[in-house]
Design goal:
This protein has 176 residues and is mainly beta. The chain has one helix and eleven strands.
């Protein structure tokens, strides 16, 4: 049958931003799915005589994105996580556009720890480590009589280009 994934099939998690650094902290609370979406990018090769039928394909990389739907967020939490967001002198959260800033150099590690009985599991072999993640804004804040408002945090997941790594993006299990 093979080896199962190290974490349970269903359940919540704790998402730790800037893992391993003095400023690390848990993102949350959240409601809904904390989700990794990863997809290989493929470029199809064609020959004119076969029209839209691909005769081959070439791998052209992989995209990966982690989403965390924060709920009941604090202004300080959003200021700390979101680039281009600051608290002004009156305590208002101000959003500014960003343009031309590189993301990789400011990317941080994220660890997902499965939660069992309201406590993150201590077994690091069950954690998921993302080496380089950069948050970006993608907000849709509903105002109606039944939707709970969230700040959907999205993180681009980059390959780790630091010395000693070979472009790894994430791994199941964290080992010192």
């Amino acid at each position: 049958m093979g080896v199962k994934l190290p974490f349970n099939d269903i359940g919540p998690c704790d998402v730790v931003w800037d893992y391993g650094e003095p400023g690390e902290y848990s993102l949350g609370p959240y409601v809904g799915q904390v989700k990794l979406a990863a997809e290989d990018q493929i470029v199809k090769v064609f020959e004119e005589s076969l029209g839209d039928t691909a005769v081959d394909a070439v791998n052209s990389g992989m995209t990966a994105e982690l989403t965390v739907p924060l709920t009941r967020s604090t202004l300080q939490q959003l200021e700390h996580i979101l680039p281009g967001v600051t608290l002004d002198v009156n305590g208002n959260l101000v959003f500014r556009p960003r343009c031309g800033s590189a993301m990789y150099s400011a990317a941080k590690a994220i660890v997902i720890k499965p939660v069992e009985n309201m406590v993150p599991v201590a077994d690091v072999g069950k954690w998921i480590m993302f080496y380089k993640c950069y948050p970006y804004k993608s907000l849709e804040i509903p105002f109606d009589r039944s939707s709970q408002r969230t700040h959907l945090l999205k993180f681009l997941v980059f390959p780790n280009m630091d010395s000693g790594f070979s472009y790894e993006m994430w791994q199941y299990g964290v080992h010192p």
